[in-house]
Design brief:
Blueprint: H1 3-9, H2 23-33, E1 46-50, H3 53-60, H4 67-70, E2 74-81, H5 87-104, E3 108-113, H6 117-124, E4 130-139, H7 156-159
Antiparallel strand pairs: 1-2, 2-4, 3-4
Helix pairs in contact: 2-5
Length: 171
């Protein structure tokens, strides 16, 4: 699959089968995430890959819309040092690379926001000086999974400004 096809066909998957993601597939996905660009090539991320069902269920309760984590084969939590203001962009790229690699390998994914980071840090034994704000659930899409209908995306003319904020047209 080429990158543009992956970007245009990737959808959030929130229901998964019981089939585990094999270690060699998970390793490819994680290695791809680590290839993400980062500010000054600092690669600030630390990933916590969770497979234990009890931990997945507990983690799913730490965000209002994270029910998908409980049924995942694995969930990856993204952490980075709190004192680096650019980490959010870097972690976002890492999570995006992870999801695109998963999609390429037939593994579904969905990002989730952690609403209770202190509890998540305690659950996953993440040091206090780290930020822990998001997870990505991974698993094979359940037959009952229904991806969101295509569409609903902004057009270029609604989101892109050319040269300055007040110009929407290419001159």
């Amino acid at each position: 699959m080429d990158v543009l096809k992956a970007i245009n066909t990737k959808r959030a998957v929130r229901q998964f089968t019981d089939q585990p993601v094999p270690p060699e597939v998970l390793d490819k996905i994680l290695e791809s995430a680590l290839r993400a660009q980062s500010s000054k090539n600092t690669q600030p991320w630390q990933l916590v890959a969770v497979r234990e069902r009890e931990t997945l269920v507990a983690l799913s309760k730490l965000g209002d819309y994270m029910g998908h984590v409980a049924g995942a084969s694995v969930c990856v939590a993204f952490a980075a040092p709190s004192d680096q203001p650019w980490i959010y962009f870097d972690l976002g790229q890492c999570a995006a690379y992870l999801q695109l690699a998963a999609h390429e390998l037939g593994v579904g994914s969905c990002i989730g926001a952690i609403y209770h980071p202190a509890e998540a840090k305690a659950l996953l034994h993440v040091p206090q000086e780290m930020s822990l704000l998001a997870v990505v659930s991974l698993g094979y899409p359940a037959p009952t999974h229904r991806p969101a209908v295509m569409g609903g995306r902004k057009r270029l003319t609604d989101a892109v400004h050319w040269e300055t904020w007040d110009s929407r047209e290419v001159s």
